[in-house]
Write a structure and sequence with these properties.
It comes from Datura stramonium. By secondary structure, the chain is mainly alpha-helical. It is built from 17 helices and five strands.
């Protein structure tokens, strides 16, 4: 779970664009539908899935990739910039290139939770932090923030990123300002907080242990509280309204602390820190939205008299979850627990995960109906642009680990709780991996029409 590598799905975006344009040009999409039919046949005949018992030590699987039939996604366009932003975009040029790949147009929405948006926010923090070396300011004013955010997105879009990133990642010009934090000057910052202790706690972190021990996270919170207190007469800190304002200020001041840390660390170290802290937060919460589950409670509740009807209903429900987002392996555990508890509260007492063979990968976006969902690693990862193969991203699980049905008598599964048994996990990839033949282009062509919801009938 903490770094296993099992599947790499690569997508030539020009091929997808070709299919989309072809489909839009011909409303019947007859040729594409014929292609899909033949691909399904190829997949059924050619796919080799790992035969792994959920209770055994699972083995990693990497698909053998076919050569790319078209040129990779490397084209870029000229960005139309305002000319009013004073931030030095060249200082994070390589990081912006990574961000544009992480937020590549077709997949940005599906990779938003743990790849695109964390990388986007990290790049912005480092951009402002490094610029503070010249400006001595850890925030932009409202007008400058508006211009800089627009230029930032234009530059990313010119390199292939989705053009709706502000909406996808809920990013606003205010995110580049100090918000309600009373401190934005570097000198004032360093005289207010214990900057040496803060840098010692966050200069080098172990991503796994940090999520459990929160050494850096606690140091950031303490520093943010000290900054927030400068806005108040401490004797007035007793009313609920004041305390509520204080909570908002602390959160805004955390952004200031992040930018200061980014100004003191090399870009690679700052990215390691900020992406790690982001994943610690994201992995604790299921990002999926659960629609009304009345149909499941009716079909699978007490008095269930037809297992087939129950499982068909569960599978239809889960298929809606699979259209939302890629999730990490730890998020999948959270999602399984959340849905299970909701079903139990709806009077579903049987373990429908076991009854209907629901696995952890069923909570993530499905690559194709024949090849089940991809769970992203719980540690930070980026999409990769290969000059010959296109875009790829890493999946952590390749076996059908059963989704654990929650027990009222047990604590929720957590990588930090040593008393909770987490289901069997995949082995870490190594040089001994045996490659299985897999027609990956068949999968990706079909995935393009499914995930992007091409209007073919």
């Amino acid at each position: 779970m903490r770094g296993g590598v099992s599947e790499s799905f690569r997508l030539d975006l020009l091929l997808v664009v070709f299919l989309l344009l072809h489909c839009l040009k011909d409303s019947t999409c007859s040729s594409l539908n014929h292609l899909k039919g033949s691909l399904i046949k190829d997949i059924k005949e050619g796919t080799l899935l790992p035969e792994t018992s959920p209770t055994a030590a699972p083995q990693p699987l990497l698909p053998l990739l076919a050569p790319s039939p078209l040129a990779p996604f490397t084209n870029s366009t000229s960005a139309k910039l305002s000319g009013l932003c004073t931030l030095n975009f060249d200082a994070v040029k390589s990081m912006m290139a990574v961000t544009s790949i992480d937020c590549v147009a077709p997949f940005a929405e599906y990779l938003a939770n743990v790849v695109c948006c964390p990388q986007l926010e990290t790049t912005l923090i480092i951009l402002i932090g490094r610029s503070s070396k010249n400006s001595n300011m850890l925030a932009l004013n409202g007008t400058l923030a508006k211009h800089c955010l627009s230029d930032f997105q234009q530059l990313l879009v010119s390199q292939g990123a989705n053009d709706t990133l502000q909406q996808i990642c809920s990013l606003h010009p205010e995110n580049l300002t100090e918000g309600s934090c009373p401190v934005k000057d570097v000198n004032e910052f360093e005289t207010t907080v214990d900057s040496s202790s803060l840098l010692a706690a966050c200069g080098k972190i172990d991503l796994v242990n940090e999520c459990c021990e929160q050494i850096c996270g606690n140091a950031i919170t303490e520093a943010a509280k000290k900054l927030a207190l400068k806005a108040y007469d401490i004797s007035r800190m007793d009313g609920s309204h004041v305390l509520s304002d204080h909570t908002t200020r602390v959160n805004d001041c955390k952004r200031i602390v992040h930018r200061w840390l980014a100004s003191k660390l090399e870009p690679a170290g700052a990215k390691h820190l900020l992406r790690g802290l982001s994943n610690c937060k994201n992995n604790k919460v299921c990002p999926l939205v659960f629609p009304n589950m009345k149909n499941i409670t009716n079909a699978c509740g007490d008095g269930m008299n037809n297992q087939t009807t129950c499982c068909n209903t569960v599978e239809r429900y889960v298929s809606h979850l699979q259209r939302q987002s890629f999730v990490t392996n730890l998020q999948a555990l959270d999602c399984a627990a959340s849905l299970g508890l909701k079903l139990q509260n709806g009077n579903v007492n049987k373990n429908v995960y076991n009854l209907c063979h629901i696995s952890l990968k069923d909570f993530s976006v499905q690559v194709t109906p024949e090849v089940s969902g991809c769970l992203l690693p719980s540690l930070p990862s980026d999409a990769i642009l290969d000059k010959t193969m296109g875009i790829s991203f890493v999946c952590d699980l390749n076996d059908n680990i059963p989704a654990p049905w929650p027990s009222m008598s047990e604590l929720p599964a957590s990588s930090c709780n040593k008393h909770v048994r987490i289901p069997a996990l995949p082995a870490v990839a190594s040089g001994q991996i045996s490659f299985k033949g897999l027609n990956i282009w068949s999968h990706l062509l079909l995935a393009a029409s499914m995930i992007l919801q091409v209007p073919c009938v």
